Amino acid sequence: MTPSKNIRVALAQEASIDFDLQASVDKTCHVIAEAGRAGAQLIGFPETFIPGYPFCIWSRGIDVDLTKRYIKNSLKRDSPEMIRICAAAVENNIEVRPGYSKNEDDSLYIAQSHIGSDGLIRMNWRKIEPTHVERTIFGEGSGPSLLNIASVPGVGRVGGLNCWEHTQPLLKYRTYAQGEQIHIAAWPPMMPGKDEEVLWNTIVEGQYHCLIWLHDSG
C-alpha cells in the first residue's frame, strides 16, 4: 500500500490520569477530538496511557492493594470504555492507536489496538515480553502479537512497538518485514523532573512519550 503524499499524524504527549479508568478514557477521547480538530489522520498514544504506567512496581515489593486497584482500572477490550474510544475515532474521522493496560479475565497485558476512523478495531496486540519487574503484574504476548501492522487506506501500513521492544532486533525485523511504513514508538515517562529524583508522571510537568518515524517504501 502506498501512503498518501502528505499525512498529518498527532502524538499524545500528555500526562496520564493514573489508576482511574473513567478519567483516563475521558482524557483519551478529549485528546482524540483535539487531534481531529487539528486535521490529523492518525494519533498515537504512549505505553499504558490507560490507566497510566504503574511505577510503584519499580520502587517497592508487590503491593497487593495497588495491584488490585490497577487491575480494576485496566481496560477491557469488549467494554463500554473501548466503545467510547471507537466512537471518538468515528466522530473525529481519525485513526487511533491507544496504548493501555489490557484486562482479560483479571490478567493484565501491555497492549495496543488500532482503531479505524470507521470505529472498527483493525488490529490488537500485546507486548511480547514485559520488561524486568513489569512481569510481576503483566503477562506475555503470544504468536498473534507478532502481527502488529494495520493496513490503513489513505494512510499506509501502520505498526508499533512498546518501550524496550525497540532494543530487540528480531522484533524490529519482524515488524519491518511486514512492510511497515509508519511506526508508532510508545514509551512510558522515564525522564526525571526538575528535582532529578522523581519520575515525570509524578510531577506537574510530567508527560508521556510517543515517537514516530517513517520508512521509505521505495
TrEMBL record:
Q: A Gene Ontology MF term for this entry?
A: nitrilase activity
Family named by the database record: Belongs to the carbon-nitrogen hydrolase superfamily. Nitrilase family.
Enzymatic reactions: a nitrile + 2 H2O = a carboxylate + NH4(+)
In Swiss-Prot or TrEMBL terms, this protein is called nitrilase
Domain CN hydrolase, residue spans: 7-218
Source organism of this protein record: Colletotrichum godetiae
Keyword Oxidoreductase carried by entry? no
The family database entries (Pfam families) matched by this protein are listed as: CN_hydrolase (PF00795)
Instruction: Give the main EC class.
Output: hydrolase
Active-site residues are E47
The record's EC number reads 3.5.5.1
Output the InterPro entries linked to this UniProt entry: C-N_Hydrolase, C-N_Hydrolase_sf, Nitrilase/CN_hydratase_CS, Nitrilases_CHs
Q: Superkingdom, according to UniProt?
A: Eukaryota
Q: Which UniProt keywords apply?
A: Hydrolase
